[in-house]
Amino acid sequence: GENVEQHPSTLSVQEGDSAVIKCTYSDSASNYFPWYKQELGKGPQLIIDIRSNVGEKKDQRIAVTLNKTAKHFSLHITETQPEDSAVYFCAATKGSGGSNYKLTFGKGTLLTVNP
Amino acid sequence: GAVVSQHPSWVICKSGTSVKIECRSLDFQATTMFWYRQFPKQSLMLMATSNEGSKATYEQGVEKDKFLINHASLTLSTLTVTSAHPEDSSFYICSARDLRQYTGELFFGEGSRLTVL
Question: Can you give the pLDDT at residue B19?
Fold first, then answer.
């Protein structure tokens, strides 16, 4: 089955700096890669996603890049703010577009943005 | 985006009792819902896939007789933890996909924290 590795497990940055979280996946058939932000005691919230036919996607301060050859994808947050502090999870699935599919999650990255 | 609601958000029960958690898609229909379990400071682990009108599909290592899943309608799936024990204490999260959208986005509920005394 799919295996997703995520690094780093913790990341501390100063407000205004950039943060980068990296993930690798094992199944070359995976075609959909979402990123979730989870605040304490809450469910995950999708912040950005990317499909295998795209190499990069950007939404304001958040961007995701995908390298299919190397099987890795990264989340980039620029101009970080204290409210960006949360746990971030990457995920991968090969069932995108079908009615059933399973997400395999990375282990998460605790991002702390210091004021 | 679509909204998935879970109830209760937290529950405390005595060991040996059963607890039911509801997951509802509020503004869309979901033939499939997913149940995850998350222990403190850990990732989400898929427990089972809930299919409307048919039996749930459980992941390896998840006891189907202990975690009963019912998906009786297109907007409601329930997870019942039977004969709960302290080791079942966890954060249970459901998710669903709006089939009207081809985006593949999964919408997650806010989670239900179970504490078994």
Answer: 97
